[in-house]
Design brief:
This protein is an alpha/beta fold. It contains twelve helices and 15 strands. The chain has helices at 19-27, 49-59, 77-80, 86-95, 112-115, 129-138, 158-165, 204-211, 222-225, 245-257, 286-302, 319-330; strands at residues 15-16, 32-34, 41-45, 68-70, 100-105, 120-124, 142-144, 171-173, 185-188, 195-198, 216-217, 239-242, 262-265, 278-279, 307-310. The strands form two sheets. It has an eleven-stranded mixed sheet with strand order 1-8-2-3-7-4-6-5-9-10-11, with helices on both faces. Strands 12-15-13-14 form a four-stranded parallel sheet. The radius of gyration is 20 Å and the shape is globular. It binds threonylcarbamoyladenylate (TXA) and magnesium ion (MG). The site of threonylcarbamoyladenylate has 29 residues, from strand 5 and strand 6.
Length: 333
């Protein structure tokens, strides 16, 4: 079976909805891209350091950036975590399957290739029927980062994965467009109190509600706590600038005057823009904004926009994650 899926087959043959095939390929040490509710992942058998090593080669990702291990259900938690505090059980009950990754002390047999040599491991149960079917069939953990080249925009369709990684994956499990659209919330539960290392699909308000106290963002250097949550990430080729509605018109006019190809992405239709400005389809409220943001950043590149002005969503719920990604896209010099 695996022999049928060599590098010579066309991209079309490497895409499909066969979760059992995806599981067999993982067991054979191959890389498989799979859908989750957040973004597509580039998966490998988390117990196979050689397969995990290939993720880093294909992505061009530094080897000390740890990977999230994806599990079929909460019942697998204790096989991967060395210690599970009560807060972790509460959060798993409330949000798994779902867009929440927990950083916990690792079980001693979790390979260094997965954890980047850290004493902790990131764990999550994704909320997508094909991913859950693949994971259940596989029966063990699947280490996976987002299925994009390092530093680039995360994929939210199978087409995005193929465009980015093409022949470097054995199979792309196609689960349609991702429902949430931005990555999982990462909560570090390995310290004295839970801290959010990356805002994501589960908002601070919902975490705080379940735990019964206000959960805070990590205050230290994020690049040290969660390598890969660097500034200058999630970047399209276009220069991204976050602006307020009030700043939009003068920034757009100035861009046009400078001879730049200017695009605009905003929650709603914007009246009165310079006719030379390309207005992308409005992104809507915070939830819709999250769903479409990565697709719109890719679209801006296809349209050869060189300055994309973005009016962000409201800073609540998943809107905070969208603003975080936009700030990182904008941080690229
Ligand atoms: O929604 C998501 O989380 C997606 C889907 C595919 O599950 N995955 C994803 O993976 O966004 P990636 O590798 O692009 O981002 C994972 C982040 C990285 O910044 C990494 O440093 C952090 O999680 N991380 C993973 N394990 C960690 C650990 N043990 N300690 C601290 N940070 C960790
Ligand atoms: Mg990523």
């Amino acid at each position: 079976m695996v022999g049928d899926i060599g590098g010579a087959v066309s991209a079309r043959d490497r895409t499909g909805t066969d979760a059992a095939l995806a599981a067999r390929l993982l067991a054979a040490g191959e890389l498989v891209a799979f859908p989750t509710e957040t973004v597509y992942g580039l998966g490998a058998d988390a117990r196979d350091p050689k397969a995990v090593g290939r993720i880093f080669d294909v992505k061009g990702r530094p080897h000390n950036h740890p990977l999230i291990v994806h599990l079929a259900g909460v019942e697998h938690l204790d096989r991967w975590a060395g210690e599970v505090p009560v807060e972790a059980r509460m959060l798993a009950d409330a949000f798994w399957p779902g867009p929440l990754t927990m950083i916990l002390p690792r079980a001693t047999d979790v390979p260094d290739a997965v954890t980047g040599g850290h004493t902790t491991v990131g764990l999550r149960v994704p909320d997508h029927p094909l991913a859950l079917e693949m994971l259940a069939e596989f029966g063990s953990g699947v280490a996976a980062p987002s299925a994009n080249r390092f530093g680039r925009v995360s994929p939210t369709t199978a087409g995005h994965v193929l465009a980015d990684l093409g022949a470097d994956v054995a199979y792309v499990l196609d689960g349609g467009p991702c429902r949430v659209g931005v990555e999982s919330t990462i909560v570090d539960l390995s310290g004295d109190e839970p801290e959010v290392l990356r805002p994501g699909g589960v908002g601070f308000d919902r975490l705080s509600e379940v735990l019964g106290y206000g959960v805070k963002a990590w205050q230290g250097d994020r690049a040290v706590a969660a390598p890969g949550t660097l500034d200058s990430h999630y970047a399209p080729d276009a220069t991204v600038e976050l602006v307020t509605m009030a700043e939009l018109f003068t920034r757009a006019a100035a861009g046009v005057t400078d001879g730049r190809r200017v695009g605009v992405l905003a929650p709603r239709v914007t009246e009165g823009l310079d006719p030379a400005v390309i207005e992308l389809e409005p992104a809507g409220d915070a939830e819709e904004f999250a769903q479409v943001i990565y697709g719109r950043l890719r679209q801006a590149d296809r349209l050869r926009i060189d300055l994309l002005l973005v009016v962000g969503p409201e800073p609540r719920g998943v809107g905070i994650a969208v603003l975080d990604r936009l700030a990182r896209a904008a941080a690229r010099a």
